[in-house]
Design goal:
218 residues, mainly beta, 2 domains, four-stranded antiparallel beta sheet, 1 helix, 45% strand, disordered C terminus
Length: 218
Amino acid sequence: MAAIRTVLFALAFAAMFTGNASAAQLEPECNGQESFIHRAIFSDGRLWLLSDAGLLFSIADGEDNRTDVALPEPALDLWSQDGRPAIITCKRDGCAVWTLRKWIDGQWITTAKVSTEGDRLVAVGRDGDKVTLLTQLRVIAIVGDKQTTTSLSSPLPPRPIASTYIGPTSIFLGFNAGEWGGGMGRGSAANRPTNRRGLDDRAQCVGSTMRRPPQHRM
């Protein structure tokens, strides 16, 4: 039963958090205070959980106890790549370089480094061997040791981004402004993704399919 619970738990969280949701903005570490789960994946026979404070934990399939995973620096996002966990990390204070790392043979191997140039990381997406970083000013495509940067023609609006979807050719952003409405932006990495269009109702989730809030009649 424990194994079944772990697998169901992994699948439920994977459905909620995998894909290309917005990258974490690190919360402070507070002793004795629980963190929220920002991302969860099932990879390499374990459930991997990333907290909003940049801490990483894992639970082996069939077990109930979590294991703290040591990190060189806080993690901003987590995904599965080539069947292994992969993360992007940066210093908690004075973040100047994002480091992409992959879990190989029980240790984190650096696969790429990207200068932040003072940008804020909005989302990370993976398509095959390509990892794409989206900031409020740039789209950075990473394949192996090669990086291609596309500058946005205008900065992303300073509105809460609830979710993102980075596909092979397009990037979708789901904005959430609570009672003031939301919207969705779409664009091509090659054509500088800045186009934004409003929706009749708020987009709650952007992915391979998009979900809208249920309509309730009074």
